[in-house]
Amino acid sequence: MEPREYEPQVGALLRIAWEALQAELYAELRAAGFDDLREVHRPVLRYPPIDGLRPTDLAGRLNLSKQATNDLLRDLERLGYLRLDRDPTDGRARIIRYTERGWRLFDTGSGLSRTIGERWARAVGEERYADFHATLREIVDVTRQAWPRPLQADLGARGGGLVQRADDP
User: Fold this and answer.
1) Of 5, 26, 152, 164, whose Cβ has the fewest other Cβ atoms within 10 Å?
2) How far is CA 5 from CA 8, 61, 144, in A?
3) Residue 24 above 60 pLDDT?
């Protein structure tokens, strides 16, 4: 039987681009002094920032058990990226707060991600990249409407959706 050739579908293309971005991003973060991060930390550190969430809300966002989520949070707390404060509205609950080092990590990662996007824009053309970015935002909005539970948390339902900055094409 002859091997079949397949045209990569959108999921595969998005995954390949995502994996390339993540590999470069984390290599650059390590070079910038965040060399104590591990692969397991990635889901906790992605957009949107987790500052202000309760650990149980984060567990739902990550689709992890509360115990696994708390283990990750305690590890990041030990590394100095965050702290767990008492929730002022419920003394039994905790609120995740970034430390100065945690915000520095988030800001550095955001800047690196923006730089990678700018390089991709130069590679394919600024206008094509801007169209791609706008189309991807539309797809995210449509997807969020169709699958609200997991994506509402991932895309900032508490803050009204994706935040578009003035310098964000």
Assistant:
1) 5
2) 9, 36, 32
3) yes
